[in-house]
Design a protein that fits this description.
Blueprint: E1 3-8, H1 19-28, E2 31-37, H2 41-52, E3 57-61, H3 75-83, E4 88-97, H4 105-122, E5 126-131, H5 134-143, E6 150-153, H6 159-167, E7 171-174, H7 184-192, E8 198-200, H8 222-233, H9 237-252
Parallel strand pairs: 1-2, 2-3, 3-4, 4-5, 5-6, 6-7, 7-8
Bound molecules: nickel (II) ion.
Length: 258
């Protein structure tokens, strides 16, 4: 069985004490592929360096809505350069976060739109972070002439919202909260998304799933997310691992043999 953690942050400082051990543990758990995701220019670069130094590991580069207000002059040119590096498969994570509102909303929208234009120019998939902002995000998608391919990462929302994103062509990625006991809406969404649009991820070091909830999360734990998704869809774990791996390789443009 091969699993694909389509979104993690192994470059995060919380992995400083045992990064290589965490990498070995994910391999031991059957996680054959991972994508390390940036949230500003420095973490984009560290994600790329980590990916380049490890087999079957890829990276994404982008400016997260939390960091939008801090995006330096010329950040788009630097991002464009980074996308040319070996192992870079996506722009992300980018989006809107109205839960924390760390950057003013108009700045979040501007930085998002600029990066969406870049993704369309380069024909690269996008990893979207959307928190408490589905209405504005869907409006923004509808108002644009060009939409990139992409992933709604760490999906949090209703079944109806998930299906709206699916109709727009996006993939829906589930993480630790899918396994929580009090997540009926999320679980209903996971049951409705077409099988060929489902992804699993950890977003580690954040959001550890049951039964390891509360501790630092790591990519090995994508096992539990996939197990829950298999249960919700009434499929064997091996089958769900195969489906989510194929979907992950398709959206990121990674050959299945890689
Ligand atoms: Ni993330």
């Amino acid at each position: 069985m091969e699993l694909f953690d389509t979104h993690c942050h192994l470059d995060d400082e919380k992995f400083d004490p045992d990064r290589e051990e965490a990498f070995q543990r994910l391999r031991d758990r059957g996680v054959a592929r991972i994508v390390c995701v940036g949230s500003d220019l420095p973490t984009s670069e560290s994600s790329i360096r980590f990916a380049q130094a490890h087999e079957h590991t890829w990276a994404a580069c982008g400016v997260h809505p939390h960091e939008a207000a801090e995006a330096p002059e010329g950040y788009l040119d630097r991002l464009r350069e980074l996308t040319r590096e070996d192992r870079v498969v996506a722009i992300g994570e980018i989006g809107l976060d109205y839960y924390y509102d760390f950057s003013p909303r108009d700045v979040q929208k501007r930085v998002l739109s600029e990066q969406l234009d870049l993704a369309c120019d380069l024909d690269m998939p996008v990893i979207f972070h959307i928190r408490d902002a589905h209405g504005d995000m869907i409006d923004l998608f509808r108002s644009r002439k060009r939409l990139p391919r992409g992933i709604i990462h760490c999906f949090s929302g209703s079944q109806e919202t998930a299906l709206e994103y699916v109709r727009m062509g996006f993939y829906i990625s589930f993480s630790g909260p899918l396994t929580f006991k009090k997540a009926p809406n999320l679980q209903a969404a996971a049951q409705a998304v077409p099988l060929d649009r489902l992804l699993v991820e950890t977003d580690s070091p954040y959001l550890s799933p049951e039964p390891v909830r509360g501790g630092r999360n790591e990519p090995a734990n994508v096992f539990y997310v996939c197990q829950k998704l298999a249960e919700l869809r009434g499929l064997p774990m091996e089958e769900m691992a195969r489906i989510t791996t194929e979907n992950g390789c398709r959206i990121y443009g990674i050959p299945l043999e890689a």
